[in-house]
Amino acid sequence: MFGVSRFTVRSALRALQDRGYVRKQRPIGTRVIADRVEDQQTIRLTSLSDLVQLAEGGQQMITASADIAADPTLASTIGCAVGQHWRHLEVLRWTSGNKEAPAMLSHLWIHPMYSGVAQGLHLNRISPVVIFIEQIGQQFGDRPSDIQQTVSAFNIKGHLARALQVKNGTPGLRIQRWFRNGSGELILYADGFYNGLLYKHQTTLHLNN
């Protein structure tokens, strides 16, 4: 009707969906859900490749790196022995649209077996998670095959508010991820704290008939 191909129409609808204007809903079709662009980055996850793509882009900086003995709280969270040393990385990330205040602070805990890989991580626009996964695959033939994720809301306060340069009480999004290999062993735990004014989370579930 408008003199364009089906491929062009699909591409346009996909772009509108990615920006949050429309949503596909069976059996209704495509529905308009917004009439303006949101000043947020949407975290959309349907697979490991989506997680890797999310972790790329935007300036990132490792602000701390050390071997730390697990206290009772961390040991309970990651299922290790109290006192076992894990490699800890603290990472700040900025969105591509906001280069002043960081949008996320993440704590990464790396299995002692791979602490040597963590010590050599250097990054700019690529997440240490992505680099770590690539390095352990090359050096050890290991890789995550299962990722458990927990998403929770919280109010940003104290040192975290100072790190993200926001006021106390600003809404935040906490995303915890446990990366396990094919043997079920935890190789990486990521605990990310996001500025809730800059991020929203979206998950797509594909149901088997």
TrEMBL record:
One Pfam family linked to the record: UTRA
Instruction: List the Gene Ontology MF annotations in alphabetical order.
Output: DNA binding
Read off the InterPro entries from this record.
Bact_HTH_transcr_reg, Chorismate_lyase_/UTRA_dom_sf, UTRA, WH-like_DNA-bd_sf
What residue stretches are annotated with the UbiC transcription regulator-associated domain?
58-200
Taxonomically, the superkingdom here is: Bacteria
Q: What GO terms describe the biological role, i.e. biological process, of this protein?
A: negative regulation of DNA-templated transcription
Q: Which residues form the signal peptide?
A: none
Q: Which PANTHER family match?
A: MANNOSYL-D-GLYCERATE TRANSPORT/METABOLISM SYSTEM REPRESSOR MNGR-RELATED (PTHR44846), MANNOSYL-D-GLYCERATE TRANSPORT_METABOLISM SYSTEM REPRESSOR MNGR-RELATED (PTHR44846:SF1)
Q: What is this protein called?
A: GntR family transcriptional regulator
Task: Supply the source organism for this entry.
Answer: Cupriavidus necator
